[in-house]
Prior knowledge:
2 domains; 10 helices
Amino acid sequence: MRRALSSALTAYRPYKAFRYVFLSAALGYISLLSFPGILFAHEISHDNFKVYSREPLHSNIHEILGSVEAKLSASAMNDQELEPRIFISNSYGLYAFLSMYVGSNSFAKVYPALPTSNVLVNESDVAHDLVFRDARTDRERALSGVIAHEVTHLIVRKHFGYLRNITLPAWKREGYSEYVAGGTLLDHDTGVRRWKHNPANDSGYRYFKYYMLVKYLIDIKKLRAEDVFTRHFDVPSLEREVLGSL
């Protein structure tokens, strides 16, 4: 019996060591996602914003953040007490690493489950207000709009709480964020053309469709932003109604 128990303990030790290493690495990675500042050598402040980068930031960052503030101020759900921390990776590889390699072809992201106000941004050209993603097509858009989009996610999360925010339909979360940003990756004509060409498959225009649904409810139907998030909608009927109006 003692020999069997000793053998079992001997076999368990490598598993225990592996588990310890794995948990330590996971904890270290989560800590890095929460406090990535150690990877960024440069920092500037602009009102409630702090921006971190690996290279000196072009002075145009202040004009960009001024544009972001104007977009947020026009939103009915703006929160002036929020203090966003913007991390400009300037590297597809670093962005993918800090994205947990999930959605690494996006322009920027926040971490819904982490209690931070961090916004991770992909490779950018601050001087020309541009951000890029690692994709063959539709690979650039305005940095100011992308930051406004992501900060709106933070505002919505603070307004509704972590759990409710996660359970909100994607078309409301993303559509409203694009509405605050003032548009999407696609221009109006391109978005409408793609939607009308293939209404059954929105893979090439999804965010544009979400944006148009929210824009229709707020601008045409005169609903408050709060109403958009809290009311139930027959989405297929809403999509047909909006598409028919274009």
